[in-house]
Amino acid sequence: MAQVNLSSETAKQSETLAQLRCVAGWADGIHKPIITLSIINIFLSITAFLGNFLILVALHKESSLHSPSKFLYRCLATTDLCVGLISEPSAVMYWLSLVNEYWNFCLFMQITHFVAGFILASVSLLTMTAVSVDRLLALILGLRYKQVVTLKRTYLLLIIFWIVSSILGATSSFVNHRIAIRFSYVVIGVCLITTTVSYMKIFHGLHHNQNQLQAHVQPVPLNMARYREAVHSALWVQLALVVCYLPYGIVTAVLPEGRASPFEFLVSECVETLVYLNSSLNPFLYCWRITEVRQAVKETIRRALCFPQT
User: Fold this and answer.
1) What's the CA gap between 108 and 112, in Å, rounded?
2) Which distant-in-sequence residues (6+ apart) come within 8 Å of 29 by Cβ?
3) Residue 205 — pLDDT band, cuts 50, 70, 90?
4) CB-CB neighbours of 37 under 10 Å
5) Does the pTM exceed 0.90?
6) What is the pLDDT of residue 290?
7) What pLDDT sits at residue 173?
8) Dihedral sign of CA atoms 26, 29, 32, 33 in order
9) Using an 8 Å Cβ cutoff, are 119 and 169 in contact?
10) CA 200 and chain centroid, separation
11) 81: how many CB neighbours lie within 10 A of its CB?
């Protein structure tokens, strides 16, 4: 009997994930805000896709960055591009199917929206954490950095990120969505602690290096001006991610895990839109902070529009 009850409860949790909000009359009072959110996300979807496509082209041309570092940024740009190509369109279709009461399509898009969003957000957080550790290793290892941080090891690390995030995202959507929620708490906590410690050590190391220069002691064999620029660029991207993701983390922690009211649902989707905004902001941050990327993007746009080089 206990086994039957346990199986019934598991099936109920799985059904709740798919049918939580695709119910007739549930969203009647929030149709206009949902349509407004849909319009905003259509615009963000276009800017995220085009912006990150240009960044990927620019990074492909850029040769001054160390290959593993460039690959990490390419992974970030790829996840942001997929947000514009998959997550935001699926969110918009989910919302519009909810408004228009296309229930079968609503159920399908709700699952697609959840799984895609979970996977891409997890990979983005983990990759951004890897960027901070990469910058720390460049400072600590000095000349040994290129021997230790290789492209092959970076590939392996990112493959692990994608596999773990995909398995958990798919499993939680069909078994129990609380798995994804609790895993996200762990990921966010680990990522925040790791990045905070990494940047604290980096700035402590930069301060120590400055003292060495003032004391005329031989510094670490590293181009410190270029390194500082790379650290500040990564830090700006990290801060943008925290600003965009933090409200969603707070709202997810405060709101109940089960059935939400229409107003709570609307608040959740608004902060989720802020998460999507991060994918549109990152290309501008890359162009602003990384001179070589900015020049490559300008050249790509110039050639696309058939403007002669001046």
Assistant:
1) 6
2) 262
3) confident
4) 19
5) no
6) 80
7) 66
8) negative
9) yes
10) 22
11) 22
For helices 151-174 and 2-19, what crossing angle results, to 10°?
110
Q: At what angle do helices 103-141 and 177-214 cross, to 10 degrees?
A: 20
Instruction: Provide the 10 A C-beta neighbour count for residue 288.
Output: 12
Mean pLDDT, the chain, whole residue set: 81
* C-beta of residue 298 within 8 angstroms of C-beta of residue 62: no
Q: Decide if pLDDT at 218 tops 60.
A: no
Return the HEC string of the chain: CHHHHHHHHHHHHHHHHHHCCCCCCCCHHHHHHHHHHHHHHHHHHHHHHHHHHHHHHHHHHCCCCCHHHHHHHHHHHHHHHHHHHHHHHHHHHHHHHHHHCCHHHHHHHHHHHHHHHHHHHHHHHHHHHHHHHHHHHHHHHHHHHHHHCCHHHHHHHHHHHHHHHHHHHHHHHHCCHHHHHHHHHHHHHHHHHHHHHHHHHHHHHHHHHHHHHHCCCCCCCCCHHHHHHHHHHHHHHHHHHHHHHHHHHHHHHHCCCCCCCHHHHHHHHHHHHHHHHHHHHHHHHHHHHCHHHHHHHHHHHHHHCCCCCC
What tokens were used for 306?
Answer: 């058939």
